[in-house]
Amino acid sequence: MISYIFILPKVVLRLTTAAIQHIYVLVYLSCLLVLLPLRLVHSTVYWSIEGILFKWLIGVLASYGWAADYTVVESGEDVSKLQDDEAVVMANHQSTGDVLTLMMCLQNKGPVLKEVMWLMDKILILAPTFGPVSFVHGDFFIQQGKQYRESQIKSLREHLLTTYWQRFRKWVILFPEGGFLRKRRAASQRFAKKHDLPVLEHVTLPRSGAMTTILQTLRSSKPMQNGPKSAFVSRKGLKWVIDVTIGYPGYPEVRPMNVQTWISGYRKPCCTAVHYRYFPITDVPEDPDELLQWMYQRFVEKEELLNQFYSTGEFPTPVANCKASIEPRKLELPAWWFLMINIAYFILMYLLILLYNTLSRLFLS
């Protein structure tokens, strides 16, 4: 009881701060609206600015975990050297904390967070802040259900051919399991037993529809126009598939991190483990059936990684048959970075207010 008394003021302060910082979403949207003519003239510059504002907003979300000492330890292969290449990222999915963890991890991966496209459940478009921002940024919202599968695959392909290309995205992030582990595990295990596939406990068998569409659409390079007055630029096409495995200490006795915990900070400081592997796109099968089997194998390997993590508290290192392994390292994000983001948004808010007042005097005088 006493511990709750000490925690309550901190939670109230954090929630109040989060509520105030919701105004950053309005600043983000207002800046893009003001700059809309630039999109018609030179879309490269426009979407570059949008990417910076988007990264700063994600930095605000990451700062809540940083302030509560919810740290991340990275291990496996060094993916930071892939930051300038196009890649597909597939991760296991246990809770909403997975998204926040990846947001924190991408903060120090160069330009990646500015140029990323997320695939997420359509229900998230209704999220008060993240939904509108993701919609404007160009993320893709998936409608779950067998009856929507074909139409969603078609919509995803069209989205990639337009939004991904035209907004100069480089990384696509998806969760191929199609839902949280706790919701999908029983059905996945029944399916595995019925079709003589591995029965998994810490992950579920992945679905390949979105992955197949992404690879078929983005494998090859494609010329892209930067706007009505710009020259064509050449895209290099996908080069890598990045396999991310996320582990939460104490699972299953301790629930994985979720967005409520991340924002409120009521849980004690903890450390989430993130393990990376990557594969050249030339090693990934093009045939849909072969790709599905390839994905099954990757998730069997995830199961083995998580078995060791939950037994020993850490992922295996170095990675077998890998020349680019990194020793487990704590993700360090400097306080000045989060301070700079808040200062930048306050400056933008001040400039927008000045612009509004100037236009009001001009048109109402």
Word description of this protein:
α2 crosses α12. The longest helix is centred in the C-terminal third of the chain and has 30 residues. This protein has 12 helices and 10 strands. It is α/β, with parallel strands linked by helices. α6 links the parallel β3 and β4. The strands form 2 sheets. It has an 8-stranded mixed β-sheet with strand order 4-3-5-2-8-9-1-10, sandwiched between helices. A two-stranded antiparallel ribbon has the order 6-7. About 2% of the residues have low confidence.
TL;DR of this structure?
This protein has 365 residues and is of the alpha/beta class. Helix content is 50%, strand content 16%. The longest helix is centred in the C-terminal third of the chain and has 30 residues.
* DSSP helical segment count: 12
Tell me the quaternary state: single chain
Secondary structure: number of strands? 10
* Unreliable segments of 5+ consecutive residues: 226-232
Radius of gyration: 21 Å
**How much beta, percentage-wise?**
15-25%
Q: Helix-strand pattern, N to C?
A: HHHHEEHEHEHEHHEEEHEHEH
- End-to-end Cα distance, whole Å, is 61 Å
Biggest sheet features: 8 strands, mixed
Query: What is the typical, i.e. mean, pLDDT?
Result: 89
